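Hey, quick one: can you model this chain's 3D structure?
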Amino acid sequence: MASPPPADWVAGWAKYQRFSELIFVSGIGHFVFALVYGGYFHQWAIAAALAMPALPVIGLYPLFKSRLKPTVIRWISHVLLLGNLAGLIVSLMWMGLTPSTAVWWLVWWPMFVAHLMGVIDGVVWVVLVMGGAGLIWFNQQHQWVPPLMKAEENPIFLMQIGFLLIGAGFSVVVRRAYDRFSHEIDGNQRMIDAQNLALERRAARLETMLQAVQQSSLDRTRLFAQISHEVRTPLNGILGFTQLLKRTEANEQQSTYLEQIDRCGSTLMQIINDVLDFSRLESHATPLDQQKFNAVQLANEAVDMVSSIAQQKGVSLVREFPDDAIEAVGDPLRIKQVLLNLLANALKFTTEGEVSVRCHTLQREDGLSTLHVEVQDSGIGIPTEALGQLFQPFNRASDSTIRQYGGSGLGLAICKRLVDMMHGRIGVDSQPGSGSLFWFEVPIDAEDWRRVA
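Sure thing. Here's the predicted structure for all 453 residues.
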């Protein structure tokens, strides 16, 4: 047997594998009867009519192993078998057999085709064989093809034995094909069961590993929170005593040192606060308030809180707010926290130019009425490849900026979690050297809040 074929012509190969014995039985039957009629009765024309069309049947062997498409193989097979059927019909006419006797030799063809190529093909061949039987009957009436023998000269007993042998051969072939097919199904089922068992075991292992990772992450978060909380208490004392020292008389050098201590302590306190905020958001759900507030007033308050930083850096703060109040329902503290984080980032990465803050209402495509806030700066910008990781904690994109500009790298991750908790959206548009535009939007209608919650 040849090596397994490529997948694009495996259909023809599978039928050859399963029913190749049918071709053998059919071909041998033709040649045996051809030898009997040629060698014993000296009817060489009948022998040729039986033997020659049997050659195309044998030709199905290489056809089914060819690289042709299954559809092409199917049509060529029908043509070859039609030639074989025509040779048999002519042979039966030359034998002088009556239609009632000849029709028994035609019944094998629909069975042969049905097993080899399919049920529908077998049904079509029932019609073709009935047409062939009709031709034999009409030939008996009109003698289109004169018989070369008389009906009684045919070896009926030998033909009956041959009929039984061919029938037995067909039965054995079909049964063997069925057994092979069942064996393949059982083998495939055993393989599938083994794969399913392996997948179940792997899924169980992965589930255990996932739970361990989640527990480890939770433990790590709690540890960070505990350490940060413990560090914040003495740090508050250091900052407090620093403020007291700054009120005492000190020379210029001492004042410089105190200013540096105060600045470093404030930076460290901001990092600790970020870690604590992130740890709280990671470890348990943070409750959200739902109260009425004026979004324009809230935005003005946030801008006022960072105005001193902007003045120190020489950066202009531009407010683009509507003249009328924006009555909203939500958690003003969390919204202000997100806005302050975005403003602090914009001022950190902007050395000159301006930072613009915009605030207005927006109707989203899903029907929600939202508060849309934008913070645009003229700073260093963000590389395109880093935008996808920007709102993830401890990402690669933030490593270099933390080293250069300081901070915890958790500000945007905290913003993302807070906005998600408020059923809103957050995003960024930026190009290196052209500044950045950060935006977020949250529902501000009481009915919308209830609906999304």
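One thing worth noting: The two ends are 66 Å apart (CA to CA).
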